[in-house]
Amino acid sequence: MPTILAIESSCDETAAAVVCDRQILSSVVSSQILTHAVYGGVMPEIAARQHVEAINPAIAQAYQDSGKKWADIDAIAVTTAPGLIGSLMIGVTAAKTIAMLHQKPLIAVHHLEGHICSALLADPTLEPPFLCLLVSGGHSSIIWVKDYTDYQVMGKTRDDAAGEAFDKVARLLGLGYPGGPAIDRIAKEGNPQAFKLPQGRIADAPYDSSFSGLKTAVLRLTQKLSSNGEPLPIADIAASFQATVAAALVTRTVNCAIAHNLKTIVAVGGVAANSALRSLLVTTASDRGLRAIFPPLSLCTDNAAMIGCAGAIHLARGETSPMSIATRSRLNL
Ligand code: KG4
Ligand code: ZN
Q1: How do residues 69-110 score in pLDDT, each as one tens digit?
Q2: What is the distance in A from the centroid of ligand 1 to the CA of 137?
Q3: What is the ipTM for the molecules in this complex?
Q4: Is the CB of 180 inside a 6 Å radius of any atom of ligand 1?
Q5: How far, in Å, CA of 51 to CA of 28, rounded?
Q6: CATH no. for residue 219?
């Protein structure tokens, strides 16, 4: 079974890990969230500079924690796309340097493929085919995983990603950044049925999403409520918004699974950490005779273990990358 040292730096987490096939030997995530919180979102220039500082310590720590020696490591996997170009370049440069220094093959990993593989780490017995709801700060997709490395995107967002919607609505409610965890926390004290909000259905594309109408509806609601001079019922608004996003995503994913006779649904990415989404997906899936799988919260948000898992799959298929491999800010799965 291949042992992979993996690096992830596509956004605001500097991460390194060592995995042996689907087993995590070490995983280090150095988060920049507190730095970017001051600005209310990720600042690309600052992210790149922080990756420069954090990357070598993260790799050294992951290597040391793994208990492995360089001779035991079969390849270096790294996220090359999509993401912030300056951030990606730091991880890719580090990966190329290590690969050259220790004479290891280099494996380029698509960030979204990494997120999909976080489900394989969560349940090592999981095998394709399955349906994957991938919801993060930059993406909202329903992906039919037909086989390892064989993906069909069944639905995507027409505008904001699910995580982006959480972050924007949290800013609107004055809850800070990142918005997802803040909304999740305060929603526990609110009534999810307090306000009816639009789920953003797309008439001719049943598995696509649109969150911009929902965001505008929350804005109008806050304007209307605050014009009464009363304090805003923040917890009720947060709970109603969260329940609407969860219902929209779960309905589309479950319908897609049933239409394509897929028995297992996995939810991955930062928004898959959301408690309302998790509980609604578990109950809806089990009502319909489907299995729902979620990675633990630490594997939902960006990490390098998932990149290592994807790297192991590529290595087993003899797929390695040239040292000239470039970074891409955008790239379809
Ligand atoms: O997967 P991720 O770490 O990074 C990307 O690849 O984008 O996802 C980050 C996103 C952020 O938008 C954050 O607000 C959201 O995931 N998020 C959540 C929760 N935890 C993180 N959204 C809803 N509920 C949560 N508990
Ligand atoms: Zn991600």
Answers
A1: 999 999 999 999 999 999 999 999 999 999 999 999 999 999
A2: 5
A3: 0.98
A4: yes
A5: 13
A6: 3.30.420.40
